[in-house]
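Usage

Read records sequentially. Each one opens with the input sequence:
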Amino acid sequence: MTNELTPKFNPTEVEAGRYEKWLEADVFKPSGNPDAEPYSIVIPPPNVTGKLHLGHAWDTTLQDIIIRQKRMQGFDTLWLPGMDHAGIATQAKVAARLAEDGILPQDLGREKFLDKVWEWKDEYATTIKEQWGKMGISVDYSRERFTLDEGLSQAVRKVFVQLYNKGWIYRGEKLINWDPKAMTALSDIEVIHKEIDGAFYHITYQIEGSDEFVEIATTRPETFLGDTAVIVNEKDERYKHLVGKNVILPIINRVIPILTDDHADMEKGTGVVKITPAHDPNDFEVAMRHDLPMINMMNNDGTINENGGKYEGLDRFEARKQIVADLKELGQLVDIKPVRHEVGHSERTGVVVEPRLSTQWFVKMDELAKNAIANQTTEDAVEFYPPRFNDTFMQWMENVHDWVISRQLWWGHQIPAWYNEAGEMYVGEEAPEGEGWTQDADVLDTWFSSALWPFSTMGWPDENSADFKRYFPTSTLVTGYDIIFFWVSRMIFQSLEFTGKSPFHNVLIHGLIRDEEGRKMSKSLGNGIDPMDVIEKYGADALRWFLSNGSAPGQDVRFSYDKMDAAWNFINKIWNVSRYILMNAEGVSADAVSSALTKVANKTAGNVTDRWILTRLNDTARRVTEQMDKFEFGVAGHILYNFIWDEFANWYLELTKEVMFGEDEAEKDITRAVLLHVLDQVLRLLHPIMPFFTEEIFEKLPNTSGSIVVAEYPKVRPEFNDDKASKGVAMLIELITAVRNIRAEVNTPLSKAVPMLIKSEHADFLNAVSPYISRFTNPSELTIAKDLAVPEQAMSAVITGAELYLPLAGLINIEEEIARLEKELVKWQKELDLVNKKLGNERFVANAKAEVVQKEKDKLADYQEKFDTVKARIAELKEN
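and closes with the structure output:
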């Protein structure tokens, strides 16, 4: 038939051109159905510095799973794509590319350099969109945004001006984190603290007018020339006589005062602390209390400036070496003690950050933080998954510092502030009128514009924008825990301030992807994995399956090629099952399937296995939907895997062969219809996770039409529920499995027929399904009765609702059989103990759902029956 699948699943062939067909068909756009409930996601914007990494692939996979399922469930879904400009990272990349040709940004000037950056943006944005296509993400490109779009830039200017007018944005000289390589300020959360080897340099300062010295210790002797005081604790008896005197700085012989301040710890070091206000945050606070001068020792590039005397022009670390050598020569270097300590590094460039006094723009965070904290106690609170990350968010907001938002870059939103020669400053959304005004050269932190992303992309500040009115607040954000501080928190407090609402209802937090040894992926370790390489080998569906099933929300996951092999094998299994079904379903129409299913539901046609698989399908659809709604994609995937691989492929397909190889054509038609229906529903359940191959198979089914992207998501159909059939086939499967296990224990292959006796209260049912028992267990004689004589020499098994005996005279050792049964008795005793413990827990019984408690009681009865039966059989064998 024309709809046959190839003998082996080939992801490259299946995925080629599929994404383009979806885009051409516009299946990713909102339905526009005014009666449908809106569901919206804005993609965490990757920056335009290069290719997607596995973390982005994880973000987009989980979001795509959510939006595809909601689309199939009939929601009016919007998934809005976009990218951010990544100021520091992108400017550094472009500067590095120019450097390869011997060109510096300064050679080009601001405007021409920015032309080069826009060329970079266009190049890499195209690359990222191609990679999104390979991942299969179902975004609406007609709404694609970029943080430097005019609409978003307008929103940025409006927010800046409004916060400035409220006094919540200000310009001032403060100690900030400085990146000497990127030559820009950094916010606190752009600094990564790493443990490195360093040293404490013990230096003596002479007391002015005497031969007395005090000893201080510092890890950064290159900054000591910027000292403006030394302090001691006023309670420190050792130094009371020195308070009010001065010390002389070595080398430059500058005189500075000795003051008292609680910052000096009598129990730490010598108790004497040097104060370098322009290069240490604690010293800055001391200087503010005592009105001390602040001397900046460094240029933007980390070299020593004119305040460094003879060290001017030296790199800070080279200056350290020379200063230490000079102090040693003067006899004022007492000791060097190695130390392992944490030092701040730039999150962007990796260099050691320099605390540095600088004039910058800041956001006052006290009121913004207070509003965000208060909101988490209201109905508009953002729900974090897992909930523990709400504590992470709250702790950061409760301890947040003012946010330095200016960056000494060219690429980004230029600060909307202008200055004239008269020393006046103007802040506004547009340039001031008149001549002589110069705009502030700095740009805003990238996260300032990204913080507005959920509402600026929807048309805000136009609150009458159709998208803003319908799709904001957005429904769900998916992101890693590493940017809760960078991005999530800032979106929350900015959205509350400017829209009066939380920016999203839910935040799903995932972890980090690590290598097989559990290490974080990094260039230095050379352990990074390119998702495009994985897709080329295994296909996007296999990668998406791995990413969605790798861990629980909030947990890290280890990448493993063994897991990728397992994902590919799972897809290939479904592919082969589909080939078998399609080869046996030629000529079956959608009407025929519908008619057959009605007959099965009404029990006017079909057999117990058909009703069993439809019942199991109902249960699977219910459980998968419940887990997806809780963002437990790993649990949902596990449920799907077990149903597809075990119940559908390994059991139902095999059981149908009793019908398909038979002579009853009417029964075959029913079985074909059920096979097609279950396959159809399985593909729909799988589609959000693995979109490519499910569409490939779906379009070949004779009972479907249109794209699976907009097909209805499976729902529970109560008419298919058949508890009796479900329990009956479960007993049948347990019985067949028990026979296979017994045969394996005594090394009796299935090809050798052996007698079989089954004692059961359900003998009528088991006789009705005896053809299945015979096909899968090969008995030479099969006896099924409610009561029968138990043979003396027989292997036995106790299953739910039945006792199984295989008289294997000559193959059975009575003592070994007793030993085996005694092990089984121990197993059932453990199960009884566990259930009794649970049912004995008053809190469990009182708080659990009634059906959950009843399920445990049913287990107790089943385990007790099995325990009693095994115990009785042991007694019989021992008597004989």
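Summary fields computed downstream for this record:
- The longest strand covers residues 191-207.
- Residues 244 and 258 are 6 Å apart (CA to CA).
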